[in-house]
Amino acid sequence: VLTPTRELAAQVEESIRTYGKYLPLTSAVIFGGVGMNPQIDRIKKGVDILVATPGRLLDLQQQGNLDLSTVEILVLDEADRMLDMGFLPDVKKILALVPRDKQSLLFSATFSDEIRDLANGLLKNPQSIQVTPRNTTVQRITQVVHPVGRGKKKALLAHIIQEHNWSQVLVFTRTKFGANSVAEFLTKNGIEAMALHGNKSQGARTQALAGFKSGEIRALVATDIAARGIDIDELPHVVNYEIPNVPEDYVHRIGRTGRAGNSGEAVSLVCLDEEGFMEEIARFTKQQIPAQIVEGFGPEAGERAEPIAMGRQTIWGGAGKAPGRDVMAAAAKAARTEMLQRVRENKAGNGERNGGNGRGGQNGNRNQPRQQAQRPAQQGRPPQRQQQPRDAQQQNFAPREDDFDRDREDAIPRNIDPLRTNLHNRRNENVVPANNNGGQPDPMRTSIDSMAGSGRRGG
User: Fold this and answer.
1) Which residues of the chain are in CATH 3.40.50.300 domains?
2) CATH number belonging to domain 6-122
3) Cβ distance 213 to 185 under 8 Å?
4) What is the pLDDT of residue 6?
5) On the CB side of 105, how many CA atoms lie within 13 Å of its CA?
6) Phi-psi region of 429 (alpha: psi -120 to 50; beta: other; left: phi over 0)
């Protein structure tokens, strides 16, 4: 059984031992970040079910400590992640090491068209099984969007956590650096927080999860891949600090809450740079998501959408058509400059931070994470429509009517107003006072088992 994260591997193996308690089956789990020798000793005794992360599995195989020639069943858990470009090379190597006549099983809450096509190319006559109808929803998850000024996100996040006195919240960022930065900000503002991502040592990751589950840590700030190993039945709150550019990731994120029959809340902090991402999510989930501006944290009147730089990739997440190549190139150049500057600043202060207790952004890191590039140069901004006054009382973030299959029985009602303009330019908005503890939106329906395709906005 292959999983994308160490935490998920450990949870899967624990479940195997629980469910197979009275069965004559042996199991073991192997993953990186810990010593190999205990894992080698366990494997040499022979196991019926081996749960592993791809990297450690290949390491042990290449060292001659593992023979995969007798594998009968190969399972890819979180298969959408296992088949993306980050894991695909290792998965292909493993496929070449196992027998051709083995059975392959792929499990995931979502499959994009790209991943489905890729799986068809790797498998022989694959069959698709859905345990629930397509677009089955979780009614106990309340969703809300808070439009926010680009420079106010961290302050709004801290305000929401403190104002509602949340004791346990999972916060999602796009990048490792972003997770560190947000966790450090929350800690400095009196909210116990830790970051969870692939650059953390295994000890730091274990400490973060344990502290979060015990209640010692109020906010766990994680990247999408790292969070796949988080399974907490009564997690009450999930915050999308940064909106994912892949709609399926939104489904996986909010699926961390509302588990085992419990209610949950998913909050998305959306700046102008991310409106297009949110529109794609609305189309993908075929839902309307209410939007509320928290007083004092909304976008500035002259604020404009800008390209988003993620590592070496520059993407456009704003509403409407993406700007030209020159604008995107300027954004990438500005992002690289700022990235290098921040890396230098982080290295300069890393020793001082590491002297602490391992909390916040940088503490407990095994390696310096790659920087999330920030805003591009001013001259690279695309044109923006003039902002309309915010004078009405209610708005919903809804998918366009044209995006629905008219013959679908599970499509939302036709009386929902279509999305005519971008999120921040629409006239109907609900401004929520900053000290408002109530007024939660009606529970919205979110797709957890949706297998529909998505449009990626990478560039």
Assistant:
1) 6-122, 137-325+360-447
2) 3.40.50.300
3) no
4) 87
5) 12
6) beta
The per-residue pLDDT for 447 is 29
Look up the CATH number of domain 137-325+360-447. Answer: 3.40.50.300
pLDDT value of residue 103 = 93
Q: What is the pLDDT of residue 272?
A: 87
Parts of the chain with a pLDDT under 70:
85, 132-139, 229, 260, 307, 309-459
Question: Are the CB atoms for 144 and 289 separated by under 8 Å?
Answer: yes
pLDDT at 396: 57
Amino acid at 156: L
How confident is the model over 282-307, as pLDDT tens digits? 888 888 889 999 999 988 887 777 76
> Are the beta carbons of 449 and 134 closer than 8 angstroms?
yes
Q: Are strands 169-172 and 103-107 parallel, antiparallel or unpaired?
A: unpaired
Token pair 């116990």 is found at 192
| Residue pLDDT, tens place only, 150-177 | 889 999 999 999 999 999 999 999 888 8
